[in-house]
């Protein structure tokens, strides 16, 4: 009888195929299944040839090829395909078997699946996997969450295939119950949206306002990658700016400026809105992709709407230096907002997320990996219940010193008509957070005037609500539905 495999992987698209190769290279035996059988055959005849990988044409033979308790990892498109395959698996699984969803599933789906499989005596792990094709093959950042009793049975595999940070620690750790893993991955992707847009805005300022060419910008990003902004995204930006096609033209200049998105950024923003958490920078990064996709609208608007036509007359080197600091400031604010969302969700769902651990496993393998994350991990190690990342001494000191550069960059961009939605959002959040008094008192008065929604008073304890009969004919009836 053929030796049974230690883990099964269903789905041989880019991420699934490369994770399988990673597992096999680390000494694990893997059974694979794909809905299209030809994909299995091609894989075993190609990249999987001669490795400890067995291919299967039916779900039944795939499940039977696994050691008990069975460990089955799904690398499928999020949504109905995951539910459909789990349904196919059910007739073959035994109590205690483990189903692992390694795709980009929405965390609420993961919570539901965890509950449904638990009722059947099965164990479910919703696992965020970040790093793209390269990460899947050589070591991703892995964020598992779900049924805690299943973790010891998959931990040896996950920690073996995960990326290693600079201190050789595996970029994999248990996140928490039910949807914790996929929630953390969702927020990671939201932060990724913000990082990419901030880099794009910096590129736009250098290109549009300063008139720099790709070679000049490549040198700047390469230089930034040697200092505080050192990260995977800064590194690949420099690489992209230096890449030429056969005619010597920078490839980036030939790419249509219409950004795509798969929805994880939107999920992050919707979750923040539902929880009442300010996620303005990441929200603007999602909307920036939306407006970029409206290519025809923008082209028409360019013929109708007029902005300032002021040539930049300042010191270019000084602006580039200020831009470096502004980008760092905005990055701090983006992560502060992202971790605030993680903190609130951890309390709401009872996950007890370890924020130092999350920052640590993001240091390698994933798309947002950077030296910056070491400082975040240190901040939460020093104060696990830190209310806001901006309150940590390292970050408050950095942003207090560099905020002038952020103001300079946003101001110059506005004066010259260069759109910087995320840099602007970062500054607005910083100024809002540090404001002892905001105009919400007037807003509450307006709400009470037209809708009797009540308000709190500065001279009374929080939680006491009052209503004014502003017109003299409104009476004492108030609305209780919108008192918060």
Short recap of the structure:
GO terms for molecular function: NADP binding; phosphogluconate dehydrogenase (decarboxylating) activity. It holds the Pfam family 6PGD. This protein has 484 residues and is α/β, with parallel strands linked by helices.
Which SSEs are present, and which pair or pack?
Layout: E1 7-10, H1 14-25, E2 30-33, H2 37-45, E3 53-56, H3 59-64, E4 71-74, H4 80-90, E5 98-101, H5 107-119, E6 123-130, H6 132-138, E7 141-146, H7 151-161, H8 180-209, H9 214-224, H10 232-241, H11 264-275, H12 280-293, H13 295-304, H14 316-349, H15 355-361, H16 372-382, H17 393-415, H18 421-433, H19 440-451
Parallel strand pairs: 1-2, 1-4, 2-3, 4-5, 5-6
Antiparallel strand pairs: 6-7
Pathway: Carbohydrate degradation; pentose phosphate pathway; D-ribulose 5-phosphate from D-glucose 6-phosphate (oxidative stage): step 3/3
Subunit structure: Homodimer.
Organism: Desulfofustis glycolicus DSM 9705
How would you explain this protein's 3D organization?
With 484 residues, the chain is of the alpha/beta class. The protein contains 19 helices and seven strands. Strand 4 (71-74), helix 4 and strand 5 (98-101) form a beta-alpha-beta unit. It has a seven-stranded mixed beta sheet with strand order 3-2-1-4-5-6-7, with helices on both faces. It folds into three domains: 7-178, NAD(P)-binding Rossmann-like Domain (Rossmann fold, 3-Layer(aba) Sandwich); 185-433, N-(1-d-carboxylethyl)-l-norvaline Dehydrogenase, domain 2 (Orthogonal Bundle), CATH 1.10.1040; 444-484, Single alpha-helices involved in coiled-coils or other helix-helix interfaces (Up-down Bundle), CATH 1.20.5.320. It has helices at 14-25, 37-45, 59-64, 80-90, 107-119, 132-138, 151-161, 180-209, 214-224, 232-241, 264-275, 280-293, 295-304, 316-349, 355-361, 372-382, 393-415, 421-433, 440-451; strands at 7-10, 30-33, 53-56, 71-74, 98-101, 123-130, 141-146. Helix 1 runs parallel beside helix 6 (132-138), helix 12 (280-293) packs antiparallel against helix 18 (421-433) and helix 14 (316-349) crosses helix 18 (421-433).
């Amino acid at each position: 009888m053929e030796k049974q495999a230690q883990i099964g992987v269903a789905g041989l698209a880019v991420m699934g195929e490369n994770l399988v190769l990673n597992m096999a290279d680390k000494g694990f035996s893997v059974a694979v299944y794909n809905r299209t059988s030809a994909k299995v055959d091609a894989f075993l005849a190609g990249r999987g040839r001669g490795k400890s990988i067995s291919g299967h044409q039916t779900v039944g033979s795939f499940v039977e090829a696994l050691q008990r308790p069975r460990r089955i990892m799904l690398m499928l498109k999020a949504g109905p395909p995951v539910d459909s395959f789990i349904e196919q698996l059910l007739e073959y699984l035994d109590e205690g078997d483990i189903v692992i969803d390694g795709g980009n599933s929405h965390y609420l789906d993961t919570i539901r699946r965890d509950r449904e499989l638990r009722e059947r005596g099965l164990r479910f792990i919703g696992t965020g996997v970040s790093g793209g094709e390269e990460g899947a093959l050589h070591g991703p950042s892995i964020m598992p969450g779900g049924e805690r009793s299943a973790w010891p049975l998959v931990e040896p595999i996950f920690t073996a295939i995960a990326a290693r940070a600079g201190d050789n620690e595996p970029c994999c750790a248990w996140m928490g119950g039910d949807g914790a893993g996929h929630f953390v991955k969702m927020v990671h992707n939201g932060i990724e949206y913000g990082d990419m847009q901030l880099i794009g805005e910096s590129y736009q300022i250098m290109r549009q306002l300063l008139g720099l060419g790709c070679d000049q910008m490549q040198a700047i990003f390469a230089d930034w990658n040697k200092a505080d902004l050192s990260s995977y995204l800064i590194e690949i930006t420099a690489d992209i700016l230096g890449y030429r096609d056969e005619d010597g033209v920078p490839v980036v200049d030939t790419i249509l400026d219409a950004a795509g998105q798969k929805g994880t950024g939107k999920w992050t923003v919707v979750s923040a809105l539902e929880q009442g958490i300010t996620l303005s920078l990441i929200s603007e990064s999602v909307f920036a992709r939306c407006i970029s996709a409206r290519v025809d609208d923008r082209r028409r608007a360019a013929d109708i709407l007029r902005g300032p036509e002021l040539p930049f007359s300042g010191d270019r080197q000084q602006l580039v230096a200020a831009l470096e600091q502004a980008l760092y400031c905005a990055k701090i604010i983006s992560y502060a907002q992202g971790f605030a969302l993680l903190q609130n969700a951890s309390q709401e769902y009872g996950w007890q997320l370890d924020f130092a651990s999350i920052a640590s496993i993001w240091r390698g393998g994933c798309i947002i990996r950077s030296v910056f994350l070491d400082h975040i991990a240190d901040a939460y190690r020093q104060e696990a219940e830190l209310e806001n990342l901006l309150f940590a001494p390292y970050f408050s000191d950095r942003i207090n010193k560099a905020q002038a550069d952020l103001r300079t960059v946003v101001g110059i961009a506005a004066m010259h008509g260069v759109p910087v939605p995320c840099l602007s959002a970062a500054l607005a959040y910083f100024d809002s957070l540090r404001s002892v008094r905001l105009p919400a008192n007037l807003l509450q008065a307006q709400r009470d005037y037209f809708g009797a929604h009540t308000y709190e008073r500065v001279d009374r304890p929080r939680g006491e609500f009052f209503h004014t009969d502003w017109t003299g004919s409104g009476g004492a009836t108030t609305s209780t539905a919108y008192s918060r």
